[in-house]
Amino acid sequence: MLVQLNINGIALIDRLTMEFDDKFNVLTGETGAGKSIIIDAVSLLLGARAQNELIRTNCEKARVEGMFIVPPNHPVEEILSSYDLEFDTEERTLILTREIAVNGKNTCRVNNRLVTLGILKEIGKQLVNIYGQHDFQSLSQSENHIFLLDSLGKEDFQNLLKKVEEAYSLWKSLRAELDHLKKSAGEKAQKIDILQYQVNEIMNINPQQNEDEEIAAELKLLDNWEKISSVVNEGYELIYGHDSAYDKLSKANVRLNEIIVLNNNFGEISNNLQTAIYYIEDAARALKSFGEDFNYDPERKEYLQERKYQIDKLKKKYGGSIKDVIDFKDKAEAELSRLMESEFLIEDYEKKVEKCKEQYQALAEELSQARKAIAETFEEELKNQLKALSMPNTEFSVNIDKNEPTSRGIDKVEFLISPNPGEPLKPLARIASGGEMSRLMLALKVIVAKAENLTTLIFDEIDTGIGGEIVLKVAEKLYQVAKFSQVLCVTHSPHIASLAHRHFKIFKI
């Protein structure tokens, strides 16, 4: 239950602290006094969307803090444990805090520890349920009835519902993949032709890594053949021909050997000359070998030029380098292989889709039976609640028809009602008056509160559209609900206010 609420810097409120009774609390006051602002502050604390307009004028931020006492064995303990949030099991105190700033910063805390807005929402949902205009609209729209009915299911039902959602998601995903494969198969022939042409074009030329660099180097030699031949021949003659550098160095070394015994320095010079002679011999052999092997071949040059043209064309089409071209070919071959095997993939996926469909349908049928059992109990409980709210002759039924498969199964749920004796059951959304809808929502919230073990229920002007004896019955029902759940009620009705255990009068000063 909500023990204390602190509000700072929200709308009209500068600073406000409210301490609530654990049973029936009523908030009254003139229209515009700020009753709904207090409810908005609680909504903010429970994770509602934050708007800068809520922040009080001239304030940098707004802050809401709520202290709750959690009863033993409450589901919120599991949530706290799953997020490793501290909770004193003796004091059983839980403090939620939320701050919003004009710069858009949003800060959430649980027992003074920072958490995400999603975690704050998850915790708040287990503690408080607020009935307002949105809930009225929700009950008025038949597509929401399945969600209201399913919220009454216990843990086994919720686990089964989760399995149905997972099975539907898998089935839908595989079905989408199968559709994609079939569509691809329709375009397969054209894609195969294009890919096969590209692969063949690259493979026919079959470029090798660094081949373009090798071709460029060889063409450079061929283009300069005359100059290279001239330099090679001339160089050979100069270093190894008649009266060459080799001859002169050899003669000099012979003469040095005549005086080598006279001084050690001559021996070192002789060794250096001999080393130079060896290098000249190596250079001469290399030049001679190059000159003998290197011949101008016009056919070879023409072949290399054509080869260079073909490789350049591939690089222009499939990438800036030979590596890019080879990578393109590898990817194209992989895509070709996938397309060629797509027929087998389609058959495989068809089997998978059929199997998933069967698993989904089996779970959905089981869920449908469980939902019908919940609906049967719900019908009786709601009728009993409505009797206490001056609707003793009201007939109520949960109509469950087959529906197209969805993540919630194969059922279409719609609430039917007959407020007056002798009238047939008709869709609730079309025939219920405002007063009847308010009582229906109150009855529904009472049932939901028991099913979900909610500690606090908040009703924002549930007396709208009702009066006389009916409002007395609503007041009595709220008083009865407060015996097992804390109730906060914004009202204009003195009948409801008179039964409160704690009464807050809201006014502006």
Task: Please tag this protein with its features.
alpha/beta, 14 strands, 18 helices, six-stranded antiparallel beta sheet, five-stranded parallel beta sheet, 509 residues
Give the topology, please.
Elements: E1 2-10, E2 13-19, E3 24-29, H1 35-45, E4 61-69, H2 76-82, E5 93-101, E6 106-110, E7 113-115, H3 117-127, E8 128-131, H4 133-140, H5 145-150, H6 155-186, H7 188-205, H8 211-223, H9 225-240, H10 245-259, H11 264-293, H12 298-318, H13 322-340, H14 342-387, E9 395-406, E10 409-418, E11 426-427, H15 428-431, H16 434-452, E12 456-460, H17 468-481, E13 486-490, H18 494-497, E14 502-506
Parallel strand pairs: 3-13, 3-14, 8-12, 12-13
Antiparallel strand pairs: 1-2, 1-4, 4-5, 5-6, 6-7, 9-10, 10-11
Distance between the termini: 29 Å
- The average pLDDT score comes to 85
- What is Rg? 45 Å
Report the biggest beta sheet as strand number plus sense, adding barrel if it closes: 6 strands, antiparallel
Number of helices: 18
| Derived structural class | alpha/beta
What are the segments in which pLDDT stays under 50 over at least 5 consecutive residues?
none
Oligomer: single chain
